[in-house]
């Protein structure tokens, strides 16, 4: 599958941990939402793709990780 950004066929799968922060000073005390997705990285242009799971999506949508789960 070619890269959506540059069209190269030089993508590789990885696994990773990503801490998603809520931006802005008012959110400075909100906990980070950790996701552990499979990553697809284009080794030509550096574009990376991953999907957030449903449980973590709910945390992000609510914007309040402490109250979900
Ligand atoms: Zn690319």
Topology:
Blueprint: E1 11-15, E2 18-20, E3 33-35, E4 38-42, E5 48-49, H1 54-62
Antiparallel strand pairs: 1-4, 2-3, 4-5
The protein binds zinc ion.
Residues 3, 5-6, 8, 42, 44-45, 47 line the site of zinc ion (ZN).
What is the CA-based Rg, rounded? 15 Å
Percentage of residues in helical conformation: 10-25%
**H-E string:** EEEEEH
Unreliable residue stretches: none
Helix and strand content put the structural class at alpha+beta
Q: What best-fitting shape do the alpha-carbon axes yield?
A: elongated
Side-by-side strand order of the widest sheet: 1-4-5
Overall mean pLDDT score?
A: 90
Number of strands: 5
N-C termini distance = 35 Å
Ligands bound here?
A: zinc ion
Portion in beta strands = 25-35%
Annotation field: number of helices: 1
Largest sheet: 3 strands, antiparallel
Short structural description:
With 69 residues, the protein is an alpha+beta fold.
Model description:
With 69 residues, the protein is α+β, with helices and mostly antiparallel strands. It contains 1 helix and 5 strands, in the order βββββα. The protein has one helix at residues 54-62; strands at residues 11-15, 18-20, 33-35, 38-42, 48-49. A 3-stranded antiparallel sheet has the order 1-4-5, with no helix packed on it. Strands 2-3 form a two-stranded antiparallel sheet. The longest helix has 9 residues, at 54-62. The protein is elongated and about 40 Å long. The model has no long low-confidence stretch (mean pLDDT 90). The structure holds zinc ion. Zinc ion binds next to loops. Zinc ion binds at residues 3, 5-6, 8, 42, 44-45, 47.
